[in-house]
Amino acid sequence: MEQNDTAEFFNLYRHGFIRSAVCVPTVKVADPRFNADQTILLAREAAAGNAIFALFPELGISAYSNDDLFHQEALLSGVRGAIERIARETAPLNLILVIGAPLRIDSRLFNCGIVLYRGGSSGWP
Q: In the chain, at which residue ranges do the beta strands (DSSP E only) sit?
């Protein structure tokens, strides 16, 4: 095999594989700003490692043990702002992110996985 053929052979995308990252950020309960910082940091690290898909924890933007705080407008508003910031700051990365967050849609609360790519998400409410 020639050098170009060898390089192409060892390109994992040629064989139908992708490089993915499972990201476990440090989180603080009910602190979407801090949690967004950690998410952005790990997204950049995943992209630098040539991953094209990064999976983050369920409710990683709010943290999991918020109990009644999940129904507080201050937390839900902070989560939306954090998601918008993550989308904006990770837009330059060639990376698909799945982040977890609580969202209120039509007066109902949902535990969501939000898919972001290049600053956008299809169906983002």
A: 20-22, 53-55, 96-105, 108-117
Burial class (CB in 10 A: 0-12, 13-18, 19+), 106: exposed
Pairing type for strands 96-105 and 108-117 reads antiparallel
94: three-class secondary structure by DSSP? coil
**What CATH number is given to the structural domain containing 99?**
3.60.110.10
Number of domains in the chain: 1
Q: Say how far apart CA 112 and CA 59 lie, in whole Å.
A: 8
The string of pLDDT tens digits covering residues 58-110 is: 999 999 887 788 889 999 999 999 999 999 999 999 999 999 999 999 999 99
The residue to which tokens 């009910």 are assigned = 30
Task: Supply the pTM of this predicted model.
Answer: 0.87
Q: Which domain holds residue 34?
A: 20-117
